[in-house]
Write a structure and sequence with these properties.
The complex is a heterodimer.
Chain A: H1 8-34, H2 54-60, H3 63-96, H4 101-108, H5 110-113, H6 116-126, H7 133-140, H8 154-183, H9 186-194, H10 199-227, H11 231-236, H12 248-258, H13 262-293
Chain B: H1 3-16, E1 33-39, H2 42-48, H3 51-58, E2 61-68, H4 70-83, E3 90-94, H5 114-118, H6 122-126, E4 129-130, E5 133-134, E6 137-144, E7 146-150, H7 151-155, H8 157-167, H9 177-187, H10 202-215, H11 232-246, H12 259-267, E8 273-276, H13 281-284, E9 296-299, E10 312-320, H14 327-337, H15 340-347, H16 356-365, H17 370-383, E11 387-388, H18 395-410, H19 416-433
Parallel strand pairs in B: 1-2, 1-3, 10-11
Antiparallel strand pairs in B: 3-10, 4-5, 6-10, 7-8, 7-9
Classes of the chains: A mainly alpha, B alpha/beta.
């Protein structure tokens, strides 16, 4: 019997392929399959009942799902822009520091080191209407004589969530943009000085094009993060009250784990992936365009 | 009588009591190892310390492989059912969760004598069944809500005079929910002092709404499980929550509050009236933890317009899995953990028992402690009006559909009619989707 000889490269890659298939591909395929079934965690036999695209049709026709979808896009837009602007400012400031820059960089990364769950609890307490830090401070300073319902009012709760997200992740932008600032060659900057450019002109026409690829990398990473925002929102408001802060993943998480409707939750999850794919593709296109502008396309 | 004396008395009574549990013969389960998933928390540990006695008596070993709160255990059980990892035998259960796992736990009836089952409070046993199957034995962790109030606000002469002038009635703790609402609004001096508060999200608010619907003469579900709360009784019940919120008689964040927030709120001394669980009684009157200590009164919960008192109740229990390979050993452990001695031990720390004899013991032991006697009298009366959460596997799922709509009405996003109609339609659709009718 002739022995089948597998190519060496394939044999060498086989362990990695097996591991990847078992931890990524199999769960992915299983969750995709289950989205076409009425699978409930408490009734395992429902995994074998095929119902076609019923879950997808149900999600598509669910107003609450689309509101959560829209709110997630809004959170993405607001949080990413805020983080980008603040991160850029922070990086430019740190870049100008001549003494203690290393300590500053480390200090700047502190919020990133906290677990999102802890950040959620921290801001839940800070914004609590009755015993929260913000209301206590406002009342002590005589700026308010009412208990402001930070986590109840729709707009205020959205602000509180954006604030928590921004507090935790602005440093992601700052660190990446700082890396970009360090990579700018000195020649064009000196040429700009000689040509008499104002600081704004130098920033607009030299610094910004150089750091744009770094900004787009940060945007791509954070867009994936925010698109699946869960922990902070779950702890601070759990998507409420009255669905006022419901995001895609608080809705999906509750459907899958609390209601045990994993098939339906997976269908919603697969529709939601469109969001992540869109933003990733969009930012990578922008990244390539920015690199082309610098003559680095490849 | 202080807590220590009470404990000693109870322990003595327990030791003297004839234990009528399912008798396990010495060494009956030699070499058997039972894996258990139990609710975790400091207040539950005293009972778990007794497991060693059962091990010594029967020769079996108990391996506790998970200790979490009920919400986390609920997720774990669902994952186990999905993955088929059901090699464990004994699990903590709760009457509000039990109906979600109709196939997980075995019927304990064949492993227990009718006399032994009769020693539990009948209503607790009834709430421990799914259909005719006794899926758990109730533990001394029975929950029904009574009314806690600050005595000082009722003793205040200015309050008495103002209330008399306003209503023509004497100021006494309320016996009806209308009176409760009126007084809560009367006492409020926001943002420093509120008349009352309520749990405002998740199953908690739906449970409160449910008992209020019952008190108003309605019901949450019809006998065929079609939703029945979009009714006049339901509207009156929801209006109670809405009116209090609109009047500013509750903290504005109450829609985000759960039990711990409510406990902290009443203990801060800034809430006049608080419908709450028995587990808080000691905490509220402890100067170490509560500003309200020494000022706490407790009475039976008020009644609705139908003359029915609220009484949404629940209790913890222990169950044995259907897949357990030694159900006799499992049942023996569960019986041991809920027998008279076990319940007397647990009740000595404050929780309410689910055995008739232990109720009598606890009440007798507290007669020299005025506060404890007041608490037990109130909760014994409260227990007589208790009724469990609707016994459907879709209770939790239904609550997730109902509570956002209740919140929407409370916060003014929807009218009461719109909110109840939307919730009712959503629950109806869910029940039909699950083939309930």
């Amino acid at each position: 019997m002739p022995r089948i000889k597998l190519p060496t490269w394939f044999v060498l890659l086989l362990p990695a392929i097996i591991i990847l298939a078992s931890v990524v591909l199999v769960p992915l395929l299983l969750s995709l399959y289950s989205s076409f079934t009425p699978y409930r965690l408490t009734r395992p036999e429902t995994l074998w009942k095929w119902i076609g695209t019923y879950n997808y049709q149900k999600a598509m026709g669910d107003w609450n799902f689309w509101v959560a979808f829209g709110r997630t896009i809004l959170l993405l837009t607001v949080a990413l822009n805020l983080e980008m602007i603040l991160g850029l400012g922070l990086a430019l400031l740190v870049n100008r520091v001549t003494y203690g820059q290393r300590a500053l960089r480390t200090f700047m990364m502190f919020p990133m080191m906290f677990s999102p769950i802890l950040v959620g609890f921290q801001f839940k307490f800070i914004f609590n209407d009755n015993v929260g830090l913000v209301n206590s401070a406002l009342q002590s300073l005589g700026l308010s004589d009412t208990a402001i319902p930070w986590l109840v009012d729709g707009k205020l709760a959205f602000f509180a969530i954006v604030f928590a997200e921004t507090w935790m992740s602005t440093s992601v932008f700052a660190i990446l943009i700082l890396a970009g600032l360090y990579a700018i060659p000195s020649d064009p900057m000196e040429a700009a000085k000689v040509d008499g450019c104002t600081p704004w002109q130098t920033f607009r026409h030299i610094t910004l094009p150089f750091i744009m690829p770094f900004i787009y990398i940060a945007l791509a990473i954070r867009s994936l993060d925010v698109a699946r925002a869960y922990d902070i929102v779950q702890i601070m408001t759990n998507g409420g009250p009255a669905r006022r802060t419901e995001l895609l993943w608080t809705l999906i998480g509750r459907t899958g784990y609390v209601d045990a409707k994993m098939g339906y939750a997976n269908a919603m999850g697969y529709i939601s992936i469109i969001l992540a794919v869109f933003f990733t593709v969009y930012f990578f296109n922008k990244l390539n365009a920015a690199r082309s502008e610098l003559g680095m396309a490849g | 009588m202080n807590k220590r004396t009470l404990k000693a008395l109870l322990s003595a009574t327990a030791c003297a009591a004839a234990i009528s549990a399912v008798p396990a013969n010495a060494g009956e389960f030699d070499g058997v190892t039972l894996q258990a998933k139990l609710i975790g928390g400091q207040q539950y540990e005293a009972l778990y310390a007794r497991i060693a006695e059962w091990e010594a008596e029967t020769g079996a070993t108990v391996d506790i492989i998970s200790k979490k709160n009920h919400f986390e255990l609920d997720k774990e059980f669902k994952s186990d059912m999905a993955a088929g990892t059901l090699g464990w035998c004994v699990g903590s259960n709760h009457s509000s969760f039990a109906s979600q796992y109709p196939s997980l736990y075995t019927d304990l009836t064949p492993y227990l004598t009718p006399e032994f089952i009769a020693e539990y409070v009948p209503s607790n046993i009834a709430a421990s069944k799914i259909g005719d199957a006794l899926v758990m034995l109730p533990r001394a962790q029975f929950d029904v809500s009574a009314l806690y109030y600050l005595k000082s606000v009722y003793a205040d002469e200015a309050n008495q005079a103002a209330y008399k002038e306003k209503t023509g009635r004497d100021l006494t703790p309320p016996d009806t929910w209308d009176e409760y609402k009126e007084q809560a609004i009367f006492f409020t001096d926001a943002p420093n002092f509120y008349g009352t508060q309520y749990a405002g999200k998740d199953e908690a608010i739906v449970g409160r709404f449910y008992e209020m619907v019952v008190a108003e003469g309605g019901q949450l579900f019809n006998d065929d499980w079609t939703p029945a709360f979009n009714s006049d009784a339901g509207k009156r019940a929801l209006a109670w929550f809405v009116d209090l919120y609109e009047a500013g008689a509750v903290p504005p964040g109450t829609t985000s509050y759960l039990w711990d927030d409510l406990g902290a709120g009443f203990a801060s001394g800034s809430i006049a009236l608080n419908l709450d669980w028995p587990g808080w009684a000691g905490y509220f009157n402890d100067p170490e933890s509560s500003k309200a200590a020494g000022d706490v009164g407790v009475i039976v919960q008020p009644q609705g317009s139908a003359g029915i008192r609220t009484g949404w109740s629940g209790h913890h229990g222990f169950s044995v899995t259907e897949t357990c390979d030694n159900k006799e050993a499992g049942a023996s452990l569960v019986a041991f953990l809920t027998n008279e001695e076990s319940q007397t031990l647990e009740s000595s720390a404050g929780p309410l028992p689910t055995r008739t004899a232990v109720w009598e013991t606890v009440v007798a032991a507290a007669k020299d402690d005025p506060y404890q006697a007041e608490v037990l009298t109130a909760f014994q009366a409260a227990a007589s009006h208790a009724f469990p959460a609707p016994q459907t596997p879709y209770w939790i799922e239904a609550t997730n559909l109902i509570y956002p709509e209740l919140q929407a009405a409370i916060l003014g996003d929807k009218t009461i009619d719109e909110a109840l109609e939307t919730a009712s339609e959503a629950v109806d659709e869910m029940m039909q989707e699950n083939g309930v009718y």
